[in-house]
């Protein structure tokens, strides 16, 4: 798998260089392409950070579920942000979610780092025309550049999808859904101006919602995912006994294969199973963990543990914070036969 990961990253590098049309002579390179060439290592690092961030959010969203976004294969972390098809061989709703939240996280991370001036040449996003009339506010500040994040995510991730098969169409569609959720999370933020805070005028800009908001919305889409088929090189959904084309405007996650039984260990689909699954009461309530074990026809064993945490913290002038150590009890529940 390590060889596969290394080879895959090498192919990625070649594809991106080819797609951007890098040349050896400055005379044939546009200023934009030169800027992209200089930023390539930086952008690739941000893309990888986004991939790991997406997986972490997936695990947070599903920590109380039988499928808790555990991929089984540790080498998959080396492949992030790309999920190689041999690692996720089936196009289930879980695979759909992983593709969507990865694309969303990479888009979000690129935009966030652009806002923080960590990407040379990255500019503010464009806003709509100023509303007519005396609205009491105007566009200003620096709006998040959603188009930049979307464009770079497509360049690094979508361009790798070659061919015209069902899995490629599945991956590209769910990647796009992830980006759409990020775009939909943009909200108007404003700052007041005026004498003594009277707020006679507000300056407003567009800003992304925190990524956990995106994660929660994608989880709702996971619940409402639609099963599709692949006909005439296109994805189709069944609607009123008719096959209808799934277009780019379709905002739902789609899947091709039924989900396996995640209660059972299955290395092929990356399922570790529920036997031996542990839950800490300070992360997942003990009652919920016991319920998860029972739902897979397993018993459970709960053992109490103790840990020390900082408590009763006080600010001491100047300039330190001193805390006591308190002993806290927590439970560790394990699913057993």
TrEMBL record:
The species is: Desmophyllum pertusum
Q: Which InterPro entries match?
A: Wnt (IPR005817), Wnt_C (IPR043158)
Listed under GO biological process in this entry are: canonical Wnt signaling pathway; cell fate commitment; neuron differentiation
> Which SMART domains does the UniProt record give?
WNT1 (SM00097)
Which region is the signal sequence? 1-18
Q: Does the keyword Signal apply?
A: yes
Q: Which family does it belong to?
A: Belongs to the Wnt family.
Listed A to Z, the keywords are: Developmental protein, Disulfide bond, Extracellular matrix, Secreted, Signal, Wnt signaling pathway
Q: Where in the cell is it found?
A: Secreted, Extracellular space, Extracellular matrix
What does the protein in this record do? Ligand for members of the frizzled family of seven transmembrane receptors.
Q: Which PANTHER family match?
A: WNT INHIBITOR OF DORSAL PROTEIN, WNT RELATED
Q: What is the lineage of its organism?
A: Eukaryota, Metazoa, Cnidaria, Anthozoa, Hexacorallia
Superkingdom field: Eukaryota
The molecular function terms of the Gene Ontology recorded here are: cytokine activity; frizzled binding
List GO terms (cellular component aspect): extracellular space
Encoded by which gene?
WNT8B_1
* Protein name, per record: Protein Wnt
